[in-house]
Amino acid sequence: MPRVLVVEDELVLAKNVRDKLRAHGCEVAVAHNCRDALAQTAAFQPDAIILDLRLPDGDGLELLPKLKAEASTTSVIVVTAHGNERIAVEAMKAGATEYLTKPVDLDELQLVVDRTVDHQRLSENLSFIRRQEQSSSGLDRIIGQSQAVRSLKETIQRLTRTRALALADPPTVLITGETGSGKDMAARAIHYDGPRAGKPFIHVNCTALPATLFESELFGHLRGAFTSASQAKRGLLEVAEGGTIFLDEIGHMGVEMQAKLLHTIEHREIRPVGATDARPINVHIIAATNRDLNAAVEADEFRRDLYHRLRVVHIHLPPLRERPDDIPQLAEHFMETHCRRFGIAPKRFTPVALDAMIHYPWKGNVRELSHIIESSILQIDGTRIDAADLRLVAETESAGGGISLQLPGNRTISIDFRNGSPSLDEVEFTILCAAFEHTGQNLSRAARLLGITREALRYRLNKGGEKVKMPPDIVAPTVLKMREQI
Predict the structure, then answer these.
(1) For residue 157, how many C-alpha atoms fall within 13 Å in the half-sphere facing its CB?
(2) Distance CA 155, CA 458 (A)
(3) CA dihedral over 192, 194, 198, 201, signed as positive or negative
(4) What values do phi and psi take at 238, rounded to 5?
(5) Alpha-helix residue ranges (DSSP H) falling in 45-99
(6) How many Cα neighbours within 13 Å face the side chain of 235?
């Protein structure tokens, strides 16, 4: 229910306005002088104030800034019987949202209050969303202590601390890396840690927009520019004015649109569909792709001049498998985030689970790690997450890469079919050698561990040592030690 404060010294008018707004569903308070208006504003915190400029104990124009100081987000609608253009301008400068003259039409006043409250709440919601986004998108949200992450943070810090990004022609940035490696996070860190943080950040997925609508979405269009253009529309490059536009997956942009984008970057202007005149823009352009643009250029699928124009500043994000030192910290972060999100008691990873994650290839990078942990915490009841709870083996098998076998003593045997299919004899011999080494090269203990007799183990090790082509540093010590015990 909207809260409205009516500051009016004419008792009859104040009562009529109060009754009209209450009938419309508003919660209304009334003040008849400056002193009461300040007290009511502090206590009532209205969404809107209807303010008369002529009050018994003061001037409404002088009162207006004091009211805004008590409730900074409150909208003020000025109403006066002695209005002129100068007073209207002064009221707007003092912070008024609307200006009406007496006699006031109550139906019109109600519409103005509705519009003002809706605009004020929309503005509050937008401010809240921007604050939330900024708090979750800064440089400190890039997690990891590996050399690659430290280098990335240093690059972004150097870029955002200069005045370059505040210029009308800021340098373009190209971010490359595999899907899920954090290109969006890096782009947001550049924006929210830079001089354009208070302006819009517009994320455009170049693969999500149909080719027929891409130009209209990016550059806008005039009314009647094409069949379905019933009204004019601002393009996303205009919506991002003063801020940043992030062109994600730019490697899949069509060649025709590449030419238009190149013109925009070079001349800092756009021409909406159907327009004859260009419009200047002040936007920082960040592009990202998981595609090899050098190869795309050589294949004539991406313009060479646009490629070089985009990579004025080039940031490459290494895949997660190349920075395994970051995995434990990332895993703990996602664990805490998802448990808090779902209202689940905190859980912890076993050492075996952490080791399994460190050695997993993570084809989906950081995004896959987050999803795996999210899935695991929703499907277990205890407080510990083990390697089996992560279901990493199933993920590996589905990717066609191979399997991982967990042996006693936190020992893992990984079989990668992509590098040649091992024979059954090779797999068996590897397990036999692992058991023999695990038991301190004790043939009898190894046999008990494997559930076979000592003679069977001796025979299989001898047979495997002769048949299987294994590296000498693995086969020789094991077989020689075994033969010494015969």
Answers:
(1) 9
(2) 59
(3) negative
(4) -80, -35
(5) 60-70, 85-94
(6) 26
Q: Are residues 176 and 295 in the same domain?
A: yes
The answer to whether position 154 is within a domain reads no
Q: Are residues 246 and 360 in the same domain?
A: no
Q: Could you tell me the two tokens for 405?
A: 């076998």
In the beta sheet, which residues pair with residue 299?
none
User: Is-above-0.85 flag for pTM?
Assistant: no
DSSP 128-174: HHHHHHHHTTSGGGS---SHHHHHHHHHHHHHHHSSGGGSSSPPPEE
- Asked which of 317, 334, 353 is the last residue of a domain, the reply is 317
Q: Does residue 7 surpass a pLDDT of 90?
A: yes
Handedness of CA 332, 335, 339, 344 (dihedral sign): negative
Neighbours of 357 (CB within 10 A): 23
Among 317, 349, 372, residue at a domain's last position: 317
Q: Based on the domain organization, do 8 and 121 belong to the same domain?
A: yes
DSSP strands (E only) in 25-97? 27-31, 48-52, 54-55, 58-59, 75-80
Helix (H, G, I), strand (E, B) or coil at 287: strand
Structural domain count, the chain: 4
Separation CA 163–CA 413 (nearest Å): 53
Is the previous residue joined to 351 through a cis bond, with omega within 30 degrees of 0?
no
With CA atoms as reference, report the closest residue to 151 among 316, 286, 290, 311. Answer: 316
- Predicted confidence at residue 398, as pLDDT, reads 45
* CA dist list (Å): 183 to 67, 199, 252, 364, 382: 45, 20, 16, 13, 34
Rounded Cα–Cα distance for residues 246 and 137 (Å):
14
Q: Considering the domain boundaries, does residue 414 fall inside one?
A: no
> Amino acid identity, residue 402?
G
| Domain CATH number, residue 290 | 3.40.50.300
**Opening angle at CA 62, ends 56 and 68, nearest 5:** 115
Range of the domain at 279: 166-317
Q: How many residues does the chain have?
A: 486
Give the three-state DSSP class for 110: helix
Smallest CA-to-CA distance from 215 within 253, 266, 241, 265 is with 253
- What pLDDT sits at residue 470? 44
How would you class 107 by CB atoms within 10 Å of its CB: exposed for 0-12, middle for 13-18, buried for 19 or more? exposed
Q: Are 66 and 35 found together in one domain?
A: yes
- pLDDT tens figures, 79-137: 888 767 788 888 888 888 888 888 888 999 999 999 998 888 887 777 767 776 766 67
Backbone angles phi, psi at 182, to 5 degrees: 110, 25
In DSSP terms, 59 is beta-bridged to 54
Taking alpha carbons only, the member of 459, 408, 417, 465 closest to residue 435 is 408
